[in-house]
């Protein structure tokens, strides 16, 4: 059931996200579920998807061209992206962007996305423009002049920035005030305290002979908290020891 206060439905969104893509249809359904959908309906976030082709100036609406210097593949042209930013932000001078505006290039060459970066964007930005590359990538002059943050969602190469834009949007929107609702919180999620989350169980207590740990059934909250911490530590040691060594923003 959607629990949205009427006052929220009329308020200005906490955050506006604009996505620049040559495949706007990619996003038709992807933000229509769960927390993101609820945040949209509650005016916590407004997400606009823009077709980069609409900003191409030539009669063929070209958004890519061959690379200077030769080589494989095509490169996304700078002009349509400059035109889109000009229209959305009123300027292509990065120094004139409003303070809480960030123009993000999704790129495998970017800074790896972490919970800390998502938190920082949720806290400090109110307008995100996400640029989705395709082919060999985007003409570097877009990075040089327009982009404030280059972000990668991991050390692998996708065919396009669209899935990365979805990942970044999801990671940020769920951290916006009230996005998670009262029934859940990001506080105990993985990475929030430098550890992975602890294991979770629900009914039935006995499933095919596999028992839920006894401690979770006894109602002793101090014991439950202690068990959860130990299990979170155990899982972190097993799957992500780098977090315990203080690497990747973990705790020491
Ligand atoms: N030639 C580029 C390279 O090796 O760095 C890869 C280009 S990739 C095929 C096309 C687009 O997908 C990129 O411009 C970027 O927008 C997006 N992309 C690919 N991998 C990504 C990643 N790990 N994180 C974020 N965006 C990614």
Walk me through this protein's architecture.
It is a single chain. The chain is an alpha/beta fold. It folds into two domains: 15-173, SPOUT methyltransferase, trefoil knot domain (Alpha/beta knot, 3-Layer(aba) Sandwich); 190-245, Trp Operon Repressor, Chain A (Orthogonal Bundle). The chain is 30% helix and 17% strand. The chain contains eight helices and nine strands. It has a five-stranded parallel β-sheet, sandwiched between helices. The protein has a two-stranded antiparallel ribbon with strand order 3-4. Strand 1 (15-21), helix 2 and strand 2 form a beta-alpha-beta unit. The longest helix is centred in the C-terminal third of the chain and has 19 residues, at 221-239. It is elongated, with a radius of gyration of 22 Å. The two termini are 41 Å apart. The model has no long low-confidence stretch (mean pLDDT 93). The chain binds S-adenosylmethionine (SAM). S-adenosylmethionine binds next to strand 5.
Mean pLDDT: 93
| Strand line-up in the sheet with most strands | 2-1-6-5-7
The biggest sheet, with number of strands, parallel, antiparallel or mixed sense and barrel status, is: 5 strands, parallel
CATH T-level fold name of the largest domain = Alpha/beta knot
Helical segment count: 8
Query: How many domains, in number, for the residues?
Result: 2
Tell me the name of the CATH homologous superfamily of the largest domain. SPOUT methyltransferase, trefoil knot domain
Provide the gyration radius in Å: 22 Å
Question: Could you say which small molecules are bound to this protein?
Answer: S-adenosylmethionine
Q: What distance lies between the first and last C-alpha atoms, to the nearest angstrom? A: 41 Å
**Sequence of secondary-structure elements:** HEHEEEHEHEHEHEEHH
Strand content: 15-25%
Structural class, by secondary structure, is: alpha/beta
Q: Give the low-confidence spans.
A: none
Annotation, overall tally of beta strands: 9
The CATH top-level class label of the largest domain: Alpha Beta
CATH architecture of the largest domain: 3-Layer(aba) Sandwich
Shape: elongated
Q: How helix-rich are the residues, as a percent range?
A: 25-40%
């Amino acid at each position: 059931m959607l629990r949205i206060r009427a006052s929220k439905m009329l308020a200005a969104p906490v955050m506006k996200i604009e996505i620049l893509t040559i495949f706007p249809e990619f996003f038709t359904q992807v933000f229509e579920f769960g927390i993101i959908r609820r945040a949209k309906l509650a005016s916590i976030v407004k997400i606009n998807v823009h077709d980069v082709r609409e900003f191409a100036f030539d009669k063929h609406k070209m958004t890519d061209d061959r690379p200077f210097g030769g080589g494989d593949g095509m490169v996304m042209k700078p002009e349509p992206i400059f035109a889109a930013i000009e229209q959305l932000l009123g300027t292509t001078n990065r120094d004139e962007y409003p303070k809480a505006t960030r123009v993000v290039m999704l790129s495998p060459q970017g800074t790896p996305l972490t919970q800390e970066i998502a938190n920082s964007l949720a806290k400090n930005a109110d307008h995100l423009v996400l640029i989705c590359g395709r082919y060999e990538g985007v003409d570097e002059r877009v990075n040089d002049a327009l982009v404030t943050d280059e972000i990668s969602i991991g050390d692998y190469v996708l065919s396009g920035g669209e899935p990365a834009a979805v990942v970044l949007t999801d990671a940020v929107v769920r951290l916006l005030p009230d996005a998670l609702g009262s029934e859940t919180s990001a506080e105990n999620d993985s990475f929030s305290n430098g550890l992975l989350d602890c294991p979770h169980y629900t009914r039935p207590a006995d499933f095919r002979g596999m028992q839920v740990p006894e401690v979770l059934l006894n109602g002793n909250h101090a014991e439950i908290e202690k068990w959860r911490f130990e299990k979170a530590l155990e899982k972190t040691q097993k799957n992500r020891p780098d977090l315990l060594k203080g690497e990747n923003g973990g705790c020491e």
